[in-house]
Amino acid sequence: MKTNEFIILEKIPLDEIINITCQMAHKVDDIAEYSVLQLKPKSIQELPNFWGIVVKTKKDMGLFTIVLKNAGLKEPLMLEPLLEKNLVIEYQKLGRVLPPLVTKSMQKIMIIVDGFWICLEHI
By the 8 A CB rule, do 16 and 51 touch? Predict the structure, then answer.
């Protein structure tokens, strides 16, 4: 396995997003919470690249959780049925997004503005 690959350990589909727990084959320090990754499954060549946001990391165990939008704006293909346990995915780090913003009047929600994700959490 290459250094820019990981394996899906668990998939949790939610309304329009998917949480996937992943494991790296090698120790990687450049992936941090709120990193944006461009993703491509190795075994599904016809699937276009898609992206997700790292929301939790356990670097000592090589584990992290990525949130994906189930279907892209330009690609209406649903990702959830294609992402299975033990699927190897190549990634490229694209940058970082804002961490959660804290409000007192809203439940936890995710907003996408011009492709930029913002998470709002209720205390």
Answer: no
> In the numeric block, which tokens belong to residue 6?
């990981």
Whether 120 shows a pLDDT value over 60: the answer reads no
Q: Which residues contact 20 (CB under 8 A, 6 or more apart)?
A: 8, 10, 11, 12, 52, 65, 66, 68, 83
Query: 121 pLDDT exceeds 60?
Result: no
Could you tell me the pTM of the whole model?
Answer: 0.73
Q: Which of 101, 38, 103, 99 is nearest to 72 (CA)?
A: 38
Residue 69 pLDDT > 80: yes
Give the dihedral sign, CA 22/84/114/100: negative
> How many DSSP H helices and E strands does the chain contain?
0, 9
